[in-house]
Amino acid sequence: MNEENALLRAPKVFELQVTAANSKVSETFELDKSVKSVNGIAFTSEKPDLLFHRGYARVEINKREFFPDNHAVQRIMNGVDANLDNRYWPLENVIIGNGQVKIEFTDKADGRTVFAAYTVQLYLDCEIELN
Amino acid sequence: MTVNLALEYIPRRMRELGYGDKYHLRFRHFILQDRETINLKAFNSLFILVEEPARINVKSQNGIFNIALTNADEMQYEHHGQIQIRNTSTSIARARFIQVIPYK
Amino acid sequence: MEEIIIHTVGISRASQLKHFEIPLPRNIEKVTGLWYKVRLLDDAESGVPISIRTRSPYLPPIIVGQISLSTRQQEGVFYYGNLILENPNVGFLDYTSGVFPAKQHNRSAMKRPLKVLLNGDSAIVHGYILDNWGTLARRNVRYEVDVYLFCELNFNDPEQ
Lengths: 131, 104, 160
Description:
The complex is a heterotrimer. Chain A has one helix and eight strands. Chain A is mainly β. Chain A has a four-stranded antiparallel beta sheet. The longest helix of chain A has 7 residues, at 48-54. By secondary structure, chain B is mainly beta. Chain B has one helix and six strands. Chain B has one helix spanning 3-16, and strands spanning 23-32, 37-49, 56-60, 63-65, 78-87, 93-102. The termini of chain B are far apart. The model of chain B has no long low-confidence stretch (mean pLDDT 90). Chain C has a four-stranded antiparallel beta sheet with strand order 1-8-3-6, with no helix packed on it. In chain C, strands 2-7-4-5 form a four-stranded antiparallel beta sheet. Chain C is mainly β. Chain B binds chain C through residues 16-18, 61-64, 69, 71-74, 80-81, and chain C through 13-19, 68, 70, 72-74, 76-77, 80, 128, 130-131.
């Protein structure tokens, strides 16, 4: 079996709903106590074209800002043709601290899309310590 | 921009760019015929416009100078690199520049 | 420590020439990357072209405009090029199109910023955007361009 105090890697997933066009949704999630570090982040949705054109997110982990306000999610989204080991946007020097992940998601209209309610999923690539 | 202003502006600008006072000056006065275009290769020098020429369009990577543009909010007097000077009318037009050539 | 500066430039008229200035933070050491994103404000249904139809399998991208970015120091103009709406050839000769039709949002790896290296002493980055979308559409097209500058900050400056 695994060694004692082994470090495992698993994604932690958080969801938030976007129900109104041009709205701002703020949510704070908390990582489990067993999460020792976060190595990467990924965004996805069941309507990826809306997320691609309209999604802007500010992400804070333990009060440290990783992406500022109005940062386009497009830049950190990946496609189905990306390497399987390259699916997360790497985050460096993440200090877990209180484990709180705060996301402020803004939906902004883009003439190329028609709004429909969508869910945004935030994946965090975490290292988990088993005690 | 007048010639006096350009001459005061140049030393300060050259210090900003790190050339100190190692540069040469040339005064250029271009004459363009009916609808003529001049393409200058000014890769290692700076061309500073010293007046507001009428009927001329100056375009380079730094920006555009054209008094007749209705959709522009600013004009650029300093140009370098590939500069295109175009006479937009059918009569002769003139444009005056000071060319600053840094050495070393 | 890294910081991203996002500066938005709005364009509303055809062939508009808009200048802008991005002030850099006081404790900046250098600028290390550049990226941009275009957002259309008008409705595409109102006749704004968002793709070019051709008979060839290669689709030319819509050139939204020209952008020039410069600093006041030796770097001068450090970026000069065309702003592209998006890469329309993501599915070029893609034989898997039946299952996952290739679209911008489900192909292509993450967009990395363009690497630049600029001295932070410049204090500002200025530039202009010359619209071309309005010229293609033959009407005023309203859109926004977000310019991202990736900076490295210096927290240990003894002079501060």
